[in-house]
Every structure is written in C-alpha cells, then in structure tokens.
Design the sequence.
C-alpha cells in the first residue's frame, strides 16, 4: 500500500480509510518535523507546530480544499512555514538563525542583515519551491540554469561544458526560465516577499 501515490492515498483517506492518512504521515513526518525544528530550535514548540500542521492538513482535506496541482509534501511544508511564521509573530522574538542551514540552496544566499526571521523563512520557502520546480524542467534546461545560477558560469563556459553553441545555451536558459515561470503560474506560487 505504501507504493500508492500521495493523491491516491488522499482520495482513500477522504473515502474513509484512515490508514491511508497514517501512511502519508509516516512517509513525511520526519522530513516535516526536521524542517520545523530547524527553524524553531525548541522540541516542545516544534512538537506543537508539527501537530498544528497536520490538524490544518486534515481540516483542509476534509473541506475538499486541497489542490492536487502541486506535490503533497510541498503543500504541507508551506502550511508548516506559515505556522512557524505565526509562532514568531506571536512571540515577537528573533530565534537563532543559521543562514547556511540549507546546503541545497539553488541560489547562493545573499548576506542581508536587515531581513527579519519572517523574511528569512519566506526567502527559504521561495528557494525550496524553486529547487523542486527546477527538477521538473527538461534535463538540458535544468543543466544550463544550474550552471548559470549555482555555479555562476558564463554562457561561453556553459556552451563549452555542454558541447553546444552559445546561442543554444542562451536558448536553453530562455526556455528554462519560461518553463519555470509556467510551473510557478500553474501552481499559483508567489515568488516574491
């Protein structure tokens, strides 16, 4: 049963099969809890936010308000993000924050001391969303975007590395950005703070 897709598990849960939700929960709970704890750094509060996240997930699913366009785990992470932001708004305090926690950043973090914790969390979510979306691009577009954005390579260097002309590299970059924008629009993601 654990080989079933997230959307099938959600459908089964909505049809009354609580085991399907348990499978979804066990599939993602470690990843989601680790994410929450990495931002809050307090087990008790992280436990509360984790519980609140899944209460909100269940409520949204039961209302039929889940949009199947995006990936389930990305949707749950966004809910967790929002609850973390709510927590910090209530606390009105700044937690310890390591700007280099996320080793998988697509874009290099610009040192921006004026960002508050809410801005940093939103900034991280934008980068996480882009990381996921870029993996959905055709391989040649993904490669060019990765070399240009992560490795700061010139189009000449990219052309040499991929054995294509500079114009082909530019075209792949252009189509990669167009496809990325389409994915962002299709999923109604907001990529600005």
Sequence:
């Amino acid at each position: 049963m654990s080989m079933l897709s997230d959307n099938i598990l959600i459908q089964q849960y909505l049809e009354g099969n609580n085991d399907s939700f348990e499978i979804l929960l066990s599939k993602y709970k470690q990843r989601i809890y680790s994410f929450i704890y990495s931002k809050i750094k307090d087990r008790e509060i992280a436990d509360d936010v984790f519980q609140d996240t899944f209460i909100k997930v269940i409520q949204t699913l039961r209302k039929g308000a889940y949009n199947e366009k995006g990936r389930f785990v990305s949707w749950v992470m966004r809910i967790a993000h929002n609850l973390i932001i709510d927590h910090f708004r209530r606390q009105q305090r700044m937690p310890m924050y390591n700007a280099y926690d996320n080793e998988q950043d697509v874009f290099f973090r610009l040192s921006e001391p004026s960002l508050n914790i809410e801005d940093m969390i939103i900034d991280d979510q934008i980068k996480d969303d882009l990381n996921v979306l870029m993996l959905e691009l055709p391989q040649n577009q993904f490669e060019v975007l990765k070399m240009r954005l992560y490795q700061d390579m010139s189009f000449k260097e990219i052309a040499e590395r991929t054995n294509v002309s500079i114009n082909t590299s530019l075209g792949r970059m252009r189509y990669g950005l167009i496809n990325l924008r389409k994915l962002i629009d299709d999923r109604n993601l907001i990529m600005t703070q």
Notes: The chain has eight helices and no strands. The domain at 97-193 is CATH 1.10.10.10 (Arc Repressor Mutant, subunit A).
